[in-house]
Amino acid sequence: MNVLFAIIQTLLFIALAPLLAGWVKWCKCHLQNRRAPSLLQPYRDLIKLTHKQPVVSKDASWLFIIAPYIIFSTTALAVSVVPLLAVDLPTASSADVIVLVGFLAFARFFLVLAGLDVGTAFGGMGSSREMTISAMAEPAMLMAVFTLTMTASTTNLSFAIDHVLQEGLVLRPSFIFSLSALMLVAVAETGRIPVDNPATHLELTMIHEAMILEYSGRHLALIEWASQLKLMLYGVLIANIFFPWGIAETLSLSVLGYGLLAIMGKLALLVVVLAISETLLAKMRLFRVQEFLSFAYLLGLLGMLSHIILEAAR
Amino acid sequence: MILFLAYAAVLLSFLSGILALLMRQHCSVIKWVHYCCTKRPDWQQCLNNWLEQSVYPQRIQQLSFICLGMAGVFAMIAGVGGLISEQAMTAQLPLGLPWLPWHVRFDSLSGLFFLIIGIAIFAVSCYGPGYVKGNNEQEHPFAVLGLFSGLFIAGMLLVLLADDAFFFMISWELMSVASYFLVAFQHENSANRHAAFIYLIMAEVGAIAIILAFGVLASFSDGGAFTFDALRNASLSDTWASVAFVLALVGFGMKAGLVPLHVWLPEAHPVAPSHISALMSGVMLKVAVYGLIRFSFDLLGDIQWQWGVALMIIGAISALGGILYAMMQPNLKRLLAYSSVENIGIIFMVLGLSMIFLAKGHPTLAALGFVAALFHAFNHALFKNLLFLGAGIIQHQVHSLNIDDMGGLIKRMPHTSKLFLIACMSISSLPLLNGFVSEWLAFQAALQVGVLDDAVLRSLVPVMAAALALTAALAAACFVKLFGMMFLGLPRTRHAAKAEETQDKGMLFSLSLLAGLCFLFGIFPGLMINLLDNVALQLLGHSLPNATAAGWLWLTPVSAEKASYSAPIVLFLAAIAGGISYRYLRRDPAMALRESETWDCGFGGLTPRMQYTSSAFTMPFRRIFSKVWIIDETITKQPGTMPLQVTDIHYELHVNDHSWPKLYQPIEKSVNRIARLVSRMQTGNIRVYLSYSFFTLIFLLWVIS
Questions:
Q1: Nearest-CA residue of chain A relative to B444?
Q2: Coil, strand or helix: which one is B402?
Q3: Do B453 and A109 touch (CB under 8 A)?
Q4: Extents of the domains making up chain B
Q5: Which residues of chain B register pLDDT less than 70?
Q6: ipTM, 2 decimals?
């Protein structure tokens, strides 16, 4: 029963990710006085891409062809250990939050290699920038996550969220710091403004798009889907770790339905925040990103220290 | 029995060295065969044919490597035996000083390092024949290489067996000096001689520090005895224990390559033949780690938490420094050598954490950190050997070690590239491979810091954990760059375009073996962790009771509620996810791939020169962490040309280590200055020298009376 639920929840996660991406676009368009595409447009794009014949450069190796599958399946794997609807998730014990970060690193490793594979200047540029940003973002993310895991004294996401839920609404300074840190990291890792702009193909600024410039057809669909999954993953992490209320604690149908509504509401709100910040901010120069991420790291560190000094004092 | 196997491993490695000496002694060997087999003419005939003049050198090489391989197998069996058995085996050999015979002890800590060395030399013995085939026998005689390889390996194994300070130092010196000759093997290059000389100086300075450390300990032991048993029972004051620890840290740290004592490492490792660099980087550094563990955890006994803090900070500096320097190296083997500095830093960091827990009275957590450190040492030996052996194959094929001369090798060398990819993934600590597990355990240990009641330590340890995270992320960037530049993209030189897969089965076998082990221990880490648990039990008196309590599928270092990781389930899920997406999207044959030109923005004519180079790839890092290196960047333009004529612009980049000008050049200068002062005594006048002798004599007589 539990395992079945884990499978269903993962599938739901994967199925809902494009909808979230559509909602981001919709919000942004409305904020910027543009006509919005339908909420279902990302699904149509994915379907269109899967029905096209992929074109592969003659200089590409096997790694280029296999990378999209690896990227998609490791991201799906990362998704499968994050509690979405219910706290009790059996897969969460097979991989804790550090392994989750490891999965994302795994996907990135192959994405970056695929960017280097064809041997164009664009691919190399995107790969180099992606590795730079991720090298700065990963410690900041772990710092934010460690605060949570030290508070809950477990790295298992299910147990950690359960712990936060049992504690009830306690104002923790450490959580405020790590929430801000995690939000900054999420912006950087999912390639949103002000770090990267997913809507542009301008060579001076692009990071993610530069790496996947050579991809087309179903390969591109998988990579796009994986990045939508990643966006939703960060959203769910933020929503369910810091505001877990509403998540189902038992597996009855009505509670689960309520949990689904709760998470969709929380994500919708988060996305509105994202859209507003994307509308208000301009993209940064590449070498300002390090300051942005060191700030995130600093926030994570402050969160950790305030946990140790203020909350765990004995 | 296990001790016997260990002796056999040592003797076989000696034998392999001695066999190599017979390389040019064809006539005397034949004579000797005749003499021995006078009664069995059929044997004699047989041996004569087998050792025919034309194939004789090959036969000797094969025999030498077979001996080495058998030494590896024996060392592995002995190592596993030592890890399993609960008690340490001791013996005395009738060698050495008259009042101090060589004491031998084989416990589970020695067993672990025997296992590491055994795997490494077995892989090297499969790899070696293919590697030395191309050597010019006149320029680079196999006799020298084989002899010193044998002595080097025997020295390392003896260090692990030693149970008294004399024997330990003798084996340590055997290891150091033999490896000096291996570094100096290709001595026609002045750079190699220079590297070997630096190595020798630093190895000897380190050895002096170790001797002093033993001396401090021995002066407190019962009657000044030098056996490890006596040293264990020595009772030191805290200050003297710290003095001994610092001396040992300097001595062993110099061998292990801790920053800033690492400078010999990136000079010496790249210039040795590849299989020797693999042994030096993958194994010899581990022997230094063994030395420090033996000295501090076993001999000194009462660990102080300050040592742990020192070890953690030095380890963090080494880890970050090592990987940042590695990133900037265009030379493949130098890059790998610097990355060894990084990994040694990680090991020391986690050991420091374990010391803090031990000193603060949390032995189970100390055992967790200890096991994580040992597991990382084991893993690093596996993947670093794999990387160095792969580098040797690539050097043979591409005739260069500069990664900017390579590119596109994934198509030319399919097997090597796959095995190299596994090593790169493992060293970048990606899930499903062994490097990840040890790093995960280290994080788990660091996250238990809440149990400490010292607030400073409680905030220091998470910062160290973040440094570890940064190191891992930078390592991933470094090895993505390495793999991308070497194997992906278009070939950058003619040699790279013409490279071919190696035809030697043995070389590929040894790489596959190591890659397979990386994968095996990534999926089933419980196998190794159960063994490592015994080491913790013997040395710290505590083990991890729950590590595999939830069954073989699960790894639960503290308890199942706190953290769990199940690589087999993850692998299973990954296979399902990958399989579904692959099958589903591949079902329509009409949708097969179409090959086409690379997108070139419509300009046409993409060339390999337009690709990102390794220095271009790391440029953002160079800018962000610019204080870490001495960056010498010069752009020269030819005068009077068009401003955008790229062919007239010359760009030069040198990235150097801070430790040379900051630390070593001042030392060198002061040594020279002192030497000049001393040389004033040398007047060249015989009467002055005679008066020196006279006054010395008078002085000594006065002292005696």
A1: A155
A2: strand
A3: no
A4: 1-302, 660-704
A5: 586-590
A6: 0.95
